[in-house]
């Protein structure tokens, strides 16, 4: 039975990082989305879709905004419980908060409980897809994918590979990391809406032997993505140079071990040299921009306009729990603030693009999700553009679409997410 969702609709017809916003966005004030069999069948004027589909059941979302669900291109589900931990920069933050928390995932029951909490928080914030780091424990991956499957979500993720510079109980080996990842990949990759992602944490926590084995695994399974962290903090860069003195820069380490390619998703990527920018572009690799994390851990200012101008697939990411929010609205606000600190006022259309189709493209699933258009899977969110008193009084003054949306980006949170549809089913 087809269903018609009524509201204002927002779809991308092009990329607002490369085209004038008017050419890149289609907004229909009295719009409708026709959903059937978990897919979007049509987006158009409510009157004409109602007339063409009199059999459809109607759900009227009034003046709320219908758009594609948010896509979080980099997060750590295992850090849900340590979000907002005070006072540390990256390496101390990992040792003080992250590693002790990730150790708790040796208990599969704990992993299952956090997976539930993580997905509930994602959904209440309108995140319908994420690409997550689990922990070194295979059971953490099972917990994550089982909970995702139960909710019918399109999700990506993988077991963290880490065989040095971490506590004893959080280290695998080059061989066991390879074997466990391969078994998990064979179990989960392509199961329903799930995709396995090969996940070496970052160069400092893997020996050359592990990076080598990981490169081999990826070469054997090139249809999987590979995610890691790159160039996030100065202390980290110095550490990489100390551990890998034979390589000219951070990215060269990954390149050497076969870990740069079209399916690579590089988290952060703040302090790149011209050579590294060119190599990422030439490889067709993606970058996940993690603005709240970069501000919270004190990392620095990612160059979003340069990344887009280079034609690099660039997604937006919460990086929970280094990132300080589950809200993709708050994450867009942080990206805006970082843009301002760099001298670039990012347009709300550019922020929304990065949070949806930009992230979906960075994860190579832009053909399936990330936009409100016919043929895409019906992962749809409904946004209230007047969800709090401060936003309501600001939007009351708005005389354009973007003036009515930008206050929700800057001031909104989970209260703005009125409804979420997963493959056409209301959550
Ligand atoms: N670099 C290596 N591991 C991590 C992590 O868990 N979070 C962040 N933000 N950076 C990292
Ligand atoms: Zn991260």
Distance between the termini: 18 Å
Q: Rounded to an integer, what's the Rg over CA atoms? A: 21 Å
H/I helix tally: 16
CATH class of the largest domain: Alpha Beta
> How many strand segments?
16
The H-level CATH homologous superfamily of the largest domain, spelled out, is Metal-dependent hydrolases
Please report which band the strand proportion falls in: under 5%, 5-15%, 15-25%, 25-35%, 35-45% or over 45%: 15-25%
Question: What key phrases describe this protein's structure?
Answer:
single chain, 9-stranded parallel beta sheet, alpha/beta, 40% helix, 16 strands, 427 residues, binds zinc ion, Urease, subunit C, domain 1, TIM Barrel, binds guanine
């Amino acid at each position: 039975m087809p269903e018609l969702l009524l509201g204002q609709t927002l779809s991308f017809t092009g990329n607002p990082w490369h085209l004038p916003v008017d050419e890149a966005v289609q907004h229909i004030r009295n719009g409708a989305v026709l959903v059937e069999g978990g897919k979007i069948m049509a987006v158009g004027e409510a009157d004409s879709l109602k007339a063409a589909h009199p059999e459809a059941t109607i759900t009227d979302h009034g003046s709320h905004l219908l758009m594609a669900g948010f896509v979080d291109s980099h997060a750590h589900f295992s850090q849900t419980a340590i979000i907002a931990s005070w006072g540390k920069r990256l390496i101390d933050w990992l040792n003080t908060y992250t590693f002790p928390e990730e150790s708790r995932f040796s208990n599969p029951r704990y992993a299952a409980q956090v997976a539930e909490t993580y997905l509930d928080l994602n959904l209440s914030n309108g995140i319908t897809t994420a690409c997550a780091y689990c922990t070194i424990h295979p059971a953490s991956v099972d917990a994550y994918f089982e909970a995702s499957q139960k909710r019918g979500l399109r999700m990506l993720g993988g077991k963290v590979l880490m065989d040095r510079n971490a506590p004893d109980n959080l280290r695998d080996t080059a061989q066991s990391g390879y074997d466990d990842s391969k078994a998990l990949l064979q179990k989960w990759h392509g199961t329903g809406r799930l995709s396995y992602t090969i996940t070496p944490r970052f160069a400092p926590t893997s020996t050359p032997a592990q990076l080598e084995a990981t490169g081999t695994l990826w070469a054997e399974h090139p249809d999987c993505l590979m995610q890691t962290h790159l160039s996030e903090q100065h202390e980290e860069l110095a550490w990489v140079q100390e551990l890998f003195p034979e390589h000219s820069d951070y990215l060269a380490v990954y390149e050497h071990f076969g870990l740069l390619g079209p399916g690579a998703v590089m988290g952060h990527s703040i302090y790149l040299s011209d050579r590294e920018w060119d190599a990422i572009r030439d490889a067709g690799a993606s970058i996940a921009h993690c603005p709240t994390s970069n501000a919270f851990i004190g990392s620095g200012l990612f160059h979003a306009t340069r990344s887009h101008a280079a034609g690099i697939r660039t997604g937006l990411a919460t990086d929970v729990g280094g990132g300080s929010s589950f809200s993709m609205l708050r994450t867009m606000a942080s990206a805006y603030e970082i843009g301002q600190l760099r001298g670039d006022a990012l347009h709300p259309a550019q922020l929304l693009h990065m949070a949806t189709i930009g992230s979906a493209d960075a994860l190579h699933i832009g053909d399936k999700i990330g936009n409100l258009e016919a043929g895409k899977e019906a992962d749809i969110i409904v946004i209230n553009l007047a969800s709090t008193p401060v936003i309501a009084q600001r939007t009351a003054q708005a005389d354009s679409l973007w003036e009515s949306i930008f206050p929700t980006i800057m001031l909104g949170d989970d209260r703005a997410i009125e409804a979420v549809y997963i493959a056409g089913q209301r959550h």
